Amino acid sequence: MNRSIDIKINGKNYSDVVEDRLLLVNYIRDVAGLTGTHMGCDTGHCGACTIVMNGEAVKSCLILAVQAEGASVETVEGLASETGLHPLQVSFRRNFAVQCGFCTAGILMSALALLRNNPEPSPEDISKALTGNICRCEGYPNIVKAIEEASLVIRASKDLGREPRGKENEKEG
Amino acid sequence: MPRGVTLYTLTPPKFDYKRASSVEEACKLLATTDGAKVIAGGQSLLVAMRLRLASPAVLVDIGHISDLGNISEEGMGLNIGATCTHSKLARSKEVMERFPILCEAAARVGDEQVRNRGTIGGSISHADPAGNYAPVLTALNAKFAVVSASNRRTIAASNFFEGPYTTVLNGDELVEKVVLEKKLSSGTKEGHSFMKFSTMPQEFATVNVASVVAIKDGKFEEVTVALGALLPKPRIMPELGESLIGKATTAENIRQASQKLQLGSEIISDYKASAQYRTHIAKVLVARSLLTAVNRATGAE
Q1: Nearest chain B CA: its distance from A93 CA (Å)
Q2: Is B201 an interface residue toward A (CB < 8 Å)?
Q3: Which residue range(s) make up the domain with A166?
Q4: How far apart are CA A87 and CA A167, in angstroms?
Q5: B192-212 tens-digit pLDDT
Q6: pTM, two decimal places
Q7: CATH code at A102?
Q8: How far apart are the first and last CA of chain B?
Q9: Paired sense of beta strands A72-74 and A2-9, if any
């Protein structure tokens, strides 16, 4: 059966008729055309498909598109703005926290949800928050370092009353 | 399917999706449709469907029913709504004050993303033998309020689980809430501990243990130990409790009692652990968890 759904993705409203069994990850990638969200394992283990839905990190391969009716979804495409990359993205680049890059979109979204709930995470907090994200290049130390650094940048910018993104943040460290 | 979508991923088999806006509506849908199954968070069911281990003709979504995931206080006890997520449970102050062992168990379910979607009602209804809640709710003497279109009943956790992925629920029934009661006895100190042993933190348990103790004057007054992931259904170990009651709460007494654990012949043996290895882990874990419960009761931790 088909059903019509309304979903907000990265602030933009989407309205489509979808098959009941369509997974949210397929909706995001194939219907909305946002292919930044990846699909790694088919069984909910790898976390590459992690998105932020209504403020919480979730796996979009374990949600039906019809279940997400009325939800507000954030994907990796929503991180950067016209004024520049998100501090997490800058920090991932600066810390070489991206190897093959397949898991990165999911990890960025897990990290985004983490930093909103816990702006001052310890390396242990970060590791725990990333339990559901597998990096098969085993690049974890740099990923944890990058998230820690991004949390510092975000906090420092807030202290200075500045928007924590922009061209100056993008300069190579 | 719009705009030439290719289903290159493992997509669930075809089904009809029905969204219920109230428990009554969900019960009515379950009573009037053949082959209907309840979905809430879907963190186990969707995996099973994608792997073709389950192919319900109809999914009744209770995830949009407002207030079904609420936690409410009732006297000294708590009612936990079926669609309360593991994350919400793990963070709940009310639960932490009254039944901290339940927060511990909720915080050890899967990973962050799974905890944000998965629900307590879904987890117990799915009845994975390695699930976290079964031993904890059995040890806490929890009751499940179950509804259908024509009936309403309360089932004790100890009578609810029948075996792997099997419960006493009928096809038209739905777990509405988990009911926990707290009994108060004066002069006793209570301690809880949940421990999970797994190959990776986010994996299902190889063995898990829930211990609840009451201590009076340095001696065990009550000891409830429930084991999960070891046998086809959660099991309270009454002999273990009996052998400790009245004894001093020393590490040596705990070690001796847990070494004598008799687990029977139904111990699960699979790719994660042989029955022999599981038995060993169970004994070690029971001792550790009892000691932690004692230390928490006496304020040593």
Answers
A1: 24
A2: yes
A3: 87-170
A4: 11
A5: 999 999 998 889 999 999 999
A6: 0.93
A7: 1.10.150.120
A8: 57
A9: parallel
